Amino acid sequence: MVAIPVGLIVVIAIVDLLAPSHIHLGPLLVVAPAITPSFAGPRTTGLIGALAVAAQIFIAALRGGFDLNHQVQIAALTVLSLLITAYARKQRRRRRELARVRSVSEATQRVVLRPLPHRLGPLRVASLYLAAEDEAQIGGDLYAATRVKECTRLIIGDVRGKGLTSISDASVLMGAFREAAHLTPSLLELTDLLERSVCRHLAEHIATASVEHGDAEQPQPGADEELREHFITALLLDIPDEGPVMYMANCGHPPPLLLRNGDQVITLHPANPGPPLGMCELPRSSGDPGTPETMPFEDGDTLLLYTDGVVEARAPDGSFYPLAQRVAQWCGSGPEGLLHHIRRDLLAHVGGRLGDDAAMVVIQRSPALHPVQQLKRKMPANSAHGG
User: Mean pLDDT throughout 41-59?
Assistant: First the structure.
């Protein structure tokens, strides 16, 4: 790539020397150092700039002397080369900072948003996270899954807002879910526990903000409004290994899509949706909205969970992404294939750039095994070999 600016300098110098004396092409030499930062660092840019200045001096010497015009051209080229070199140095520093930010983001993602296993009991699982920020790979969307006895328990959620605050809120909810999922027998109890964890975190957040403003006793004006503006939509699922059903608790989250029989798409609207997590002034009890509901989930069915960043993604003309209509043509794909099709189609719909983070999880229930196959799966390896 360095040969390009060097070649430009040589060509411009030769053409300038061959041109009539009243034609001066020397100012075009600035193009060489100007294009160098796009592929090289400040040192190479400085060398190309020095070479351009040397070529300008060489042209002036062969043209018969350093008149005022040549002096101005040499001075201008020198100043511009120095400025371009300074820009290249700043650009390199920016690239290094961006690399560090991405490294921290990837480490945070591995801790907070762990990749879902491809297999959970009889379920095939695939997940996808698309961050709206160029410098981050994680934001306020979240998902997690774990095995509880003969059942798979999942959560997908969306934190209101962006940036570090949303990551903090997401990490609190994920930590609470991973701890409580094994301790609570029902989705209702799990939802209550997650609600208390989120509310406690938000209260501590407001208290910390008050201390930072110098008043630990009195909350800052607007603190209640800020507390009410922080919430997390969430969808919790319990999927038993046996039986054609699943149990769902919807806390203000977009309803999942059930893909069945190769071309049928069913939106699983909750009969009694609950409020988002973090609406701390709203009580939750067994009679409140958000009580787990029984939904169909048979062998061969595929379930698509998603956040609002998917269905609220806008095309340049302002139209939303029609997820339910688009997935109908890909019902026969496996979990990974389905996410591949959606990702490609979604990015094409928005013109390559999302306005909000988007997360998706695809769950497919494998057909039930024959009793003999189930017995073989449960047998130890040494027994299977006659040992």
Answer: 90
Domain coverage including residue 15: 3-102
Q: If you average pLDDT over residues 26-44, what whole number do you get?
A: 88
Domain stop point among 34, 67, 102: 102
pTM of the model: 0.70
Amino acid at 277: L
Final residue of a structural domain among 102, 136, 151: 102
- Whether 371 has a pLDDT exceeding 50, the answer reads no
Q: Is the pLDDT of residue 101 over 90?
A: no
Q: How many domains is the chain built from?
A: 2
Separation between Cα atoms, residue 356 and residue 208, nearest integer Å:
28
